[in-house]
Structures are given as C-alpha cells and as structure tokens.
Amino acid sequence: MDEKMLLHYIPYFKGFLVILALAYFGYIFKNRGKFKSAQTVALSAIMAGVVTVATIIIRVPIPASSGYLNFGDTMVMLTAILFGPLIGAFAGGVGSALADLIGYPAWAPFTLIVKGLEGFIVGYIASKGDDYTTTLMATIAGGIILVAGYVIVAFVMGGYGAAIAELYNDTLQAVTGIVIGGGLGYTIKKRYPDIVSLIQS
Question: What pLDDT, on a 0 to 100 scale, did the predictor assign at position 195?
C-alpha cells in the first residue's frame, strides 16, 4: 500500500471525520435519558482535545515505520477508564486521528479505527469493576489492540522491517499507557467513585 496514494483520500477522510463527530453528538442527544447530554458532549470534546495534544507534544520519530512514540495512549486509556467506552472510543479515535492529520495524515484513517477500538475495549472492560485487576486487564487488552493494529498496518504499508520497528515502539507505548494511564485511572476512580455521574443520568 502506497502512502502517496492514501494522501489523495485524506480530504474525503476529513469530511468523514466531521460527519462521524456530528453523528456521535447526535446519538448522545438522542439518548438524553441515558446520558447527561451537555456534559457528555463537553467531556468528549475536551478529552479528544487532550488526546490530540498529548499525542503531538512529544514525538519520537520511528523512521522505519513512519510513525512516532507518543503519550497519546496514556490519555486514551485514562479517558476510557474514567468515562467508559463511549467517550473512550471517541476521544481515542477522533483525538488520535486529528493528531495524525497534523503530522502523519496517511495513518489517520487507521488510527481512527485502532485507537477508537482501543478506547472502547478499555472503557468496556474497566466499567465491569473498580478493582485493580479489572483495570489492569482492561489496559492490557487495549495495549494488545494498539500493538497488533499498528503492526498489521505497518506490515501492509512497509513490510517486515516497518512491522518490527512498530512492534518494538508500540510495545513501549502500550506499556507506558498501561502503567501511567491505568495507574492514574485506577487511583482517580478509587478517590472519586462518583466520576461516572458526570455523564450518566
């Protein structure tokens, strides 16, 4: 798969991202009985912005895979643990894709899927319990999705060399997310167990 070819489709992807965000916010307002719509929309937008900023503040380039090491996954996992699968998926997918559009636009469509799925899975598993084991399992599952997703994309786009480089660097990124994002998420939820009430009716 050629990155130059993918770049031709990025303008369409930007439009798709806008439509996706509008559909997401529409879903929230349609389910006002389940969510505190204003708070949920605000937190979704804020956390997507936080993920974007956390992704682009520190970038350690990975020449072999055209990627970079960042702390975005730390914020994706933290967001998902605190606010559940819905906001986790939106902040992870859209926030990370926006960051890629700034620096590595060809990767943005893949990032939307991989990071969105990561945020959803972490949030879904973490919502099943407040104990440390559940939080750890949630972040490990998210880390596996992160690493597997990007290794597959790197292999398709750049072959074995790119996949190996991606495996090493994304494993470090996943571990950082598990330790910092998971640790902070667990601590905050323990001290402020009612944080979920910010979005649930």
Answer: 78
